[in-house]
Amino acid sequence: MKTGLKVLLIVVGVIVLVGMSLAGAFNNLVALDEKVSQAWSQVENVYQRRADLIPNLVETVKGYAAHEKSTLQGITDARARIGGTISSDMLTDPQKFQAFQQAQSGLSSALSRLLVVSENYPALKADQNFIALQAQLEGTENRVSVERGRFNEAAQMFNTRIRSFPSNIIGGMFGFKAKEYFKSDVGAAQAPKVQF
């Protein structure tokens, strides 16, 4: 075999190996990006479940606590604000992701106030519809926590890969961007004060 042909075969072989490596890195990024998207869909799913429970909860409380209009209006307003924070690019835009997270925290806070108000109404606390809705809401809040954790795990895997060589080169070439993480609410590290 001639030396020129050997060199050509070696060069072609190296190019094929590099191409296969780059294709593998790209496909891996696509798979991880899809995993993040799937995890995000689950987060949205449980947030939607929570949002769907709220009108029923508000209507149940209205019958017993008609003069608690500010609390009920706060929940309705917080639920409405959530719809304005969802966008397709929020997973890679820190400000939009933070706005979404703040809107969700606002809704959680409003729901907490509603449950505190319910303590003032013994008949409401004994109402079977309210008890069932409260149990569903508690279960949904647990699901939110689980799905947010799963999303953070998927985002961490994707972000690690996109920062690693050679995936960082492929990611940059094809516009892959790091995903945002859910973080705890401001002040969550401090235990609440309980006074009797």
Average the pLDDT over all residues and give the rounded result: 81
Measured as a percent range, the helix fraction is over 70%
Q: Tell me how many strands there are.
A: 0
Sheet-strand content, in percent, reads under 5%
Following the backbone from N to C, one meets helices and strands in this order, namely HHHHHH
Poorly predicted ranges: none
Report, as a whole number of angstroms, the end-to-end distance.
92 Å
Oligomer: single chain
Category by helix and strand content: mainly alpha
Rounded to an integer in angstroms, the radius of gyration calculated over CA atoms is 25 Å
Shape: rod-shaped
Write a brief structural summary.
It is built from six helices and no strands. With 196 residues, it is an all-alpha fold.
What descriptors fit this protein?
196 residues, mainly alpha, 77% helix, rod-shaped
Task: Write a structural description.
With 196 residues, the protein is mainly α. The chain has helices spanning 3-64, 69-83, 94-118, 122-126, 128-163, 167-174. Helix 1 (3-64) packs antiparallel against helix 5 (128-163) and helix 2 (69-83) runs antiparallel to helix 3. It starts with a helix and ends in a 22-residue tail after the last helix. The relative contact order is 0.14.
